[in-house]
Amino acid sequence: MSTRFETEGLSLWYRFTWRVKYTLLIFFGPPRLDPRQDPQTRMEQARAAKVAEARAARRAEGDSGTA
């Protein structure tokens, strides 16, 4: 995944704090659990949802600007 798409729509502060939390979970969090209970998986899913929301907003903004 390219950096442009990975960071699209997410602020620098969000990306920094997300990476710190994720790294702390690697070292101090629980062992890998099933996807419903694993905090790392939940963080990844929440981030993917935020990126998708930002992309949709950007597309809607682009579409309304051309009308």
Give a short synopsis of this structure.
This protein has 67 residues and is mainly alpha-helical. 75% of the residues lie in helices and 0% in strands.
Secondary-structure element order, as H and E?
HHH
Mean pLDDT: 83
How many separate domains make up the residues?
Answer: 1
Portion in strands: under 5%
Structural class: mainly alpha
Biggest sheet, in brief? none
Helical run tally: 3
Q: How many DSSP E strands?
A: 0
User: Which radius of gyration do the C-alpha atoms yield?
Assistant: 15 Å
- Span between N and C termini? 31 Å
Q: What proportion of the residues is helical, as a percent range?
A: over 70%
List unreliable stretches of 5+ residues: none
In one word, what is the shape?
A: elongated
